[in-house]
Q: What sequence folds into this?
């Protein structure tokens, strides 16, 4: 009897130990998975922080203190799909990708073109809009087509594809870095053109139309410089957010929501 009681006690102790071990191993794993998922999704739980440069109408610009435009509205639609609160950070264009890489911002959305060089640093969503780079000149300029840009003083916003393409070597289709001046934004480049410091400005067609409408004596060449696709950039380590944003974007494109936003800001000629 004494021996049987001892066996029962040992078995009971082993059962309790196994139960405790099971509880102990499951709880931390579940908690860890949830924490890791939230940490990799967005910088701040419940928010979607988008970096942009609000100097690029109609994609992003300011009305008073508020940032508006195509990118701002499409980003809001995406945030709503993901049940997140959108927060927009207005920064220099050149600092968008480094900020996304470092985890300061969740994504970058600023009329940003997908290029091989940028793809080495960040991941991109599907394209949500098409941009056309054009050339602004004075109305009395001797520049008639893009072929006349060789040897001219060219202005473009720093970090944009207009600047990157134009400042490349002649062998690669550019005009040489020594012939291109980079400006913090398109407005400063246009002011330099008006002041005679440069001969032309290479910039996206939509902001180009806005600048020409606001400044007498300027025009856009009929010849397009280059056509490109715009997309949203993400840190290479944050594929979870990239996938979820891309899924939301596909739905918004399919149901016509993105087109409705674009059509609000860009009227057919």
A:
């Amino acid at each position: 009897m004494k021996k049987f009681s001892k066996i029962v006690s040992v078995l009971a102790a082993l059962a309790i130990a196994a139960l405790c071990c099971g509880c102990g191993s499951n709880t931390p794993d579940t908690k860890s998975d949830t924490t890791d998922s939230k940490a990799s999704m967005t910088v701040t739980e419940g928010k979607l922080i988008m970096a942009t440069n609000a100097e690029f109408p109609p994609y992003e610009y300011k009305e008073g203190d508020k940032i508006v435009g195509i990118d701002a509205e499409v980003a809001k639609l995406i945030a709503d799909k993901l049940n997140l609160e959108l927060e927009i950070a207005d920064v220099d264009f050149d600092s968008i990708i480094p900020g996304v890489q470092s985890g300061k911002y969740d994504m970058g959305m600023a009329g940003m073109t997908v290029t091989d060089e940028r793809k080495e640093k960040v991941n991109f969503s599907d394209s949500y809009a098409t941009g056309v780079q054009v050339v602004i000149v004075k109305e009395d300029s001797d520049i008639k087509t893009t072929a006349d840009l060789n040897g001219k003083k060219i202005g473009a916003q720093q970090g944009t594809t207009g600047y990157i393409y134009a400042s490349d070597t002649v062998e690669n289709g550019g005009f040489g870095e020594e012939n291109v001046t980079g400006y913090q934004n398109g407005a400063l480049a246009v002011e330099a053109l008006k002041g005679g410091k440069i001969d032309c400005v290479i910039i996206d067609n939509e902001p180009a139309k806005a600048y020409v409408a606001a400044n007498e004596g300027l025009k856009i060449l009929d010849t397009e410089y280059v056509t490109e696709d715009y997309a949203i950039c993400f840190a290479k380590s944050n594929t979870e957010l990239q996938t979820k944003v891309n899924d939301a974007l596909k739905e918004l494109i399919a149901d016509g929501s993105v087109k409705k936003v674009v059509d609000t800001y860009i009227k057919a000629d």
Summary: The longest strand covers residues 129-138.
